[in-house]
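seq/struct pair 1
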Amino acid sequence: MVSYKMPYPTKLRQRAVNTYLTEKGSRTIEEVAGHFNISSRTLRRWLGWFREGGEGNLERARRPHTKSEFDFEVEKKVVQLKEKNPWLTLLRTQKILKRMGLEVSTRRIWSIWRRFGLSGFIKGELFLENYVNNIAPSKETLLGLK
């Protein structure tokens, strides 16, 4: 599923930019942005687009990000490495991938591991009582000394 925020209409962009440019001395970016119910950061971005290419440049729209073939290959390699060696660390995985010619951040590796259930634990399910039964008893416990 691809989701993205619908872009603002071009007319709104043009009106906001023109309003700011005509009232530059009397109103701040924050005031103009507030008038059009947009963030000042958005208005600054539109002003940058306008300075780069004029009003026609305000017609650009954000496109949804679709995963490329490269993304699937990276995920496949990360999952294969972790499945072959469950004790592999993030940094070690990153180094191996780098030797393969793939630049992948540790954050991305962790995200892939979590998505495929390879991260080792699930947040909220790491309780001591879940693991106490799996710990081998000590000699003292077996002999009744503790």
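seq/struct pair 2
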Amino acid sequence: MASKKVVAEVQLSEGLLDTIHSLARRLRVSDEDVLASSVKLMDGVQNGDFKVIKTNGKDKAADAEK
């Protein structure tokens, strides 16, 4: 079966990033785990590699599925 690669980038507001970080601290998991779970619930994503990154003062989330 051929491997499908999907890459998506989402701009997060500072408030949303703060909410994700706060929830992650309460659950004692990484920001990426909270983001991954949220996206999986909303979009039915089965497998993905999620990263929260900050570049040039802008908060971004990147998702790459291999």
